[in-house]
Write a structure and sequence with these properties.
Layout (H helix, E strand, L loop, with lengths): L6 H10 L7 E2 H7 L6 H9 L12 E2 L12 H13 L4 E2 L2 E2 L1 H4 L5
Parallel strand pairs: 1-2
Antiparallel strand pairs: 3-4
Helix pairs in contact: 1-3, 2-3
Length: 106
């Protein structure tokens, strides 16, 4: 019998599928992975990524359209904003317009 991937692996696989120029929320990932109360676990998974990882963690933001890492590190929050802006995701007053930039898989 094949071993099922753990939750963190499923988070990483999902985040890998987010197209350039779009964002998703922590809670959205949790819901789409079948664990609607696991938004915080999604954040823990992304926080635990090794620095050399190619998982585009910066495409995951909170439900308000803001970066959630700003409380932990201004440098990391600035990096996340810069990476998103490089992908043409615009911030207005510190927020991304989720009506425009939020991605929903088909």
């Amino acid at each position: 019998m094949a071993k099922l991937p753990n939750f963190y692996t499923r988070v990483y696989d999902f985040v890998q599928s987010i197209p350039r120029g779009y964002v998703v929320t922590y809670g959205q990932i949790a819901v789409l992975l079948g664990s609607p109360r696991a938004a915080r676990a999604v954040g823990y998974a992304l926080r635990g990524l090794p620095s050399e990882s190619d998982v585009p963690w910066w495409r995951v933001i909170n439900a308000k359209g803001e970066t959630s890492i700003q409380r932990r590190s201004v440098v990391a929050a600035d990096l996340q904003c810069a990476l998103l802006e490089h992908e043409k995701v615009n911030f207005k007053k510190g927020r991304v317009d989720l009506k425009i930039f939020q991605w929903w898989p088909k």
